[in-house]
Amino acid sequence: MGNNSNSSRRDFLRQLTAITATTAFSSVYLTELSARNPNPRRLGPNEKVNLACIGIGNRGAEIIRELYKTGLCNIVALCDTDMGAPHTLAIMNEFPNAPRFQDFRKMFDKIDSQIDAVSIGTPDFSHFPATMLAMSLGKHVYVEKPMAHTFNEVELMMRGARKYGVVTQMGNQGHSDANYFQFKAWKDAGIIKDVTAITAHMNNERRWHKFDSKIKSMPPAEPIPSTLDWDTWLGTEKHHDYNKDYINGQWRCWYDFGMGALGDWGAHILDTAHEFLNLGLPTEINLLKENGHNKFFFPYSSTLLFKFPERGDMPACDITWYDGTDNLPPVPEGYGNVELDPSIPPPSTGKIIPAKLNPGKIIYSKDLTFKGASHGSTLSIIPAEKALEMQSRLPEVPASPSNHFANFLLACKGLEKTRSPFEIAGPLSQVFCLGVLAQQLNTKLIFDRSTKQITNNPLANELLVGASPRRKWREFYKL
After folding, report:
1. How far apart are CA 110 and CA 453, in angstroms?
2. Both 135 and 269 in a single domain?
3. Model pLDDT for residues 263-281, shown as the tens digit of each residue
4. CA-to-CA distance for 243 and 33, rounded, in angstroms?
5. pLDDT tens digits for range 244-267
6. Residue 13 sits in the same domain as residue 81
7. What is the residue range of 282's domain?
8. Confidence (pLDDT) at 216
9. Is 349 a member of any domain?
10. Are residues 114 and 196 in the same domain?
């Protein structure tokens, strides 16, 4: 890329950061950027990936530490809308020499040429703009699950990854652990076959269980902390007055900002089944139960039935999702113990409190039944007598050559392929987007897989795209 190309990109970024709500944005800059998109920098086998980190508190900080621990990257920038708050201060102190920014647009404007890849550990609703801008500038992207907040945002991110030719990885880290390799080996060997039903369950207490379901409005305005750039935190979302119940993980409670229990845990429970059973998108999303429905935040408990059609030689498959402390799924005879799998990492709020049934799944095929926990936890055949009978027929399962974080960075260097790229993680995330719409509207949805439209509910179909973003953020949807 020549100097003219670099100049055009910088002009685009300066326009992007300078735009106000009352100033129209010229699409000329976007056209120039697309026409002169830089290719990702080719890295040598002994080079480290120059990583800029967007979202550095709580889970974002954990991601940064895991990526850095691989020894495969340099941390070249830290970016967060709440720089210097207690939840971001620790990671800032760990990397005192990394330049600091409160707005990822300004970060790219200043040090675009110094960045090879980004990690994005921000709230669900803000994954999209940072991801799209990074990809359009030729940067590889590691983004936390779920990929984005709306079905359409995920669709655009999948297209963007293809268009810009960058490495992508969604942060469902168990997708590089034992369960991934076991599921693939058992599927290839015909141990897992003819799956007709899956029960997925997450019955631990969630943040919104402390809320009153009869609230009539969003929380009242509170003073904005001095460390927080609230307008940039809101990003594409319509204006809300600041309230402490929107930040530090509380955003997960609200339809406007998060994806609830399904978006939070679904990718850790259903990822391998979705990929290796080639499930794709459902034809129906049936809301079988919803306790505590309101239009602002997620229900106290819900049961969702996703219906997937036949795929090649695989039969139709139903996935039933159970969340809520009062909504345990039925388990088959011979299920065995329900102890908490020690390999499941704790949420940012602390350790998982063991429930009567801990996060996981039950997979029913015509001949065998399997149970498993979440993340990288392996499956077991149940009941125990059947597992003993099958033991000699089970194939050898290869060890993982790299964890999820090293896998991403090695892929940036051209040495591996990511295991959860957008082309695989995208349809899985879209399943969750459809489930959240059924929860939000408290209704059944019929989905046309060929047109990717909801056919029985016009409002739900409009919400596949979502509300119009604030004016100064609209151009991200054209990248």
Report:
1. 40
2. no
3. 999 999 999 999 999 999 9
4. 37
5. 999 999 999 999 999 999 999 999
6. yes
7. 182-207+255-394+427-463
8. 86
9. yes
10. no
